Structure formats: C-alpha cells, structure tokens
C-alpha cells in the first residue's frame, strides 16, 4: 500500500504493508467562497453581536494572530475584519495586529509579508509579542501563586479580537480560542507556570480533552479576566484550505469549532499498535525538532509500551532555538531529563516540548527518525536513532510488527484507542 507523509514542503512517498491502519482526516470539503464565509461569520456570529456592532463607538482595536508556526490563512481572514473595523469608525492608526509568538522568535520582513500580505504589513501597525519584555506585560491575575501577565497592547485596546486555527492540541485539547492569550501573548513568568513539569504531566492535559483539562480551564479563566470581545477561528482541510469558520463568543464559538475538528480529525483504532509511522506535519510545523513533540505525543497515545515509533520530519532549521538545543544537549536520555527537570527550581524555556519528546521515547522501545536537518549526534543524546533510508527501515521493521498504524499528516490527525 502506498502512502505519502507530509515532509517539509513536499510529501514523502512510502510503501507500507496492506495490513497497516491509515490514520487520516475524514474528508472535509473546502468552503466554496472563503471570503463570503468569513464575512457571514463576522455578521452572524455565535452568541455575540456582529463585529460591526461591537466595533461601533470603540476608539482602538487589537487583533491577535498566530505566528509562522501555524498554517492560519491570515491573508484571507484579516482583510474582511479590518474593513469592518474601519467602516465602523475605528481609525487605521488605532488598530494593532499583535502576533502571538508565545516564546517563539518574532516574524519579520519577508516572513511577515508571507503571513499577512505586503499591503497589510505596510499599512497597519504590527507588533511581535516578546515574552521577556517586561515593560509590555501587565499582571491581571494570580493562579496558584503564579503571576498571570498579559501583553499591554492587547489589554489597552478597547476592542479585543482573537484569531487562529482550531486543531487538536496536546496540551489545550484544541488550539484556538483562549490559547491565543494563554500562552500566545503571556509573559515568561506566566509560561513557567503554564508549561511547568507538573502541569504538562497532568493526565487530562492531552489531545481532544477539555473536561478536567487544567491547561484549558486556566486558559478560560485568564481569557475571562483579560477580556475577549470576539474570536474568528478557522478549521482547515487536509489540503490546508478553509473547511469551516467559527466566529463570536470566545468560548461557545470555539466549542463549536472543537466539535467540528473532533468529527474530522480523530481516527480510532481497536487497540495499541506495535509500530506507528508518523510525520512531523510538514512545513511550517516540521521546521524544527521542537515542534515534533506534537507528532510523537499523538503516536505515543496509540503505541503499546515498548513499541516502535518511526518519525519523518525535515527539520530544516535543526533542533530548534539555542535554548532548546542547549536543553536537549544538557541531559542524556529520558531518566536524566525527568530527574532534573521535574524540580521547579530547574525550569528552563522549552522544557515542555522536551518533556513530551522524552515521554514518547521512554514509552517506546525504539524511536527512529528520518530527517535531513538533524544529525546522528543530535538524536543519539535523546535515545532516538537516525535513519538514512526510511523505506528500507520500514521494510525491515514490518516483518516483526503485526499491528502497524500510519499517520501521513502527523499531529493534524489524532489517533485514539476505541473504548471497550
């Protein structure tokens, strides 16, 4: 059987046994007229007045958008929103587009132009969130003794709008909605709490789970405190076209989108698999090994303890940021990582992604990685193995693994073991 894994800007063709279970999105047709669908959502939102009604009488607005690591069609969703705001009386110079980088690097120059379009880049105020820039942070809440600090550009705007993509998320259950604020535009001190070893280790902090998920619940509480007048979230098809638009109240509109995602992005299997073959999700998600934690977590959830995990990820930028590289090279293997970083005093940036990577490696018997951008030395420290020929590796492994699952789109499809 032939399949094609997302890998960088391309698809990697792979032959797998006929008995392999393909984990794929349920077909979702793209909306016929995306611009009209967005305009209708802005005009007739879920549990909210229209955006134009909310904008009337406001003197300023802040629109939060996702950064380059998320395939959000900002070039489609921003123009209708900006037209509504200006037609409703908010001057262009009083509109700020705030990029929810979380702790990622800023998006500038040609990269920014590719995200929002050159016309918007040249005509509007666009600000990258910097989590370490204390002057831009304002404390609004304390949770379990931890400060909750949010970007002032958002807090000071009279009209607050969140945009983004709803997809499965291995911490928040689903991305989108409240996640644009926490962690999108939160301070480093707030991240230390939200991405602590203990929070990430919580059993309900997982893909497609909202009830009892403390990451989700904290996000809702902070959004209520910070304020969110309106959201516009989209879901995308397998080919990354807009499949649905959800706008309106930050919680109820988001929940409708989550239901939509569950129906098309969750694939059930009858029981744990002996081997899972997955991708890092392709560009832009698989630019670094940092983001591959999502694919590995999805695979771990359906892999039997001691099973084999095969990951294809381009990682054209290598392991990731300097901080993440230093973290991954600071310990050797899962046991050393858990022993050191479970202590809150040792918290460092990016440890949450490393935690998920090591949890997957600890769960599996073998983890094999096919990647042009990672060295054998990079992977050896983690306990994973680098392979040069993924087809040859799969051919060899298939003989000793009866139950095999293949997830060509990686973290965009969540495998779940069918109850009972």
Keywords:
420 residues, alpha/beta, 2-enoyl-CoA Hydratase, Chain A, domain 1, Rossmann fold, 2 domains, six-stranded parallel β-sheet, six-stranded mixed β-sheet, 20 strands, globular
Condensed summary:
The chain has 420 residues and is α/β, with parallel strands linked by helices.
Detailed description of the structure:
With 420 residues, this protein is of the alpha/beta class. It has 16 helices and 20 strands. The protein has helices at residues 34-43, 51-55, 74-87, 109-116, 118-123, 152-155, 188-194, 197-200, 214-226, 252-265, 293-300, 322-328, 334-341, 351-363, 376-380, 390-398, and strands at residues 2-7, 10-15, 21-22, 61-66, 95-100, 125-128, 137-143, 146-151, 159-165, 168-169, 173-174, 230-236, 242-248, 266-269, 273-279, 303-312, 366-370, 385-386, 404-407, 414-417. It folds into two domains: 2-25 and 267-417, LarA, C-terminal domain (2-enoyl-CoA Hydratase, Chain A, domain 1, Alpha-Beta Complex), CATH 3.90.226.30; 34-250, 3-Layer(aba) Sandwich (Rossmann fold), CATH 3.40.50.11440.
Numbering strands along the chain, what is their spatial order in the largest sheet?
3-19-15-16-17-18
Spans where pLDDT lies below 50 across 5 or more residues: none
- The total number of structural domains is 2
CATH class of the largest domain: Alpha Beta
Percent strand:
15-25%
The main pleated sheet reads as:
6 strands, parallel
Within CATH, the superfamily of the largest domain carries the name LarA, N-terminal domain
- Give Rg in angstroms: 21 Å
State the helix count: 16
CATH names the topology of the largest domain as Rossmann fold
Q: Which outline best applies?
A: globular
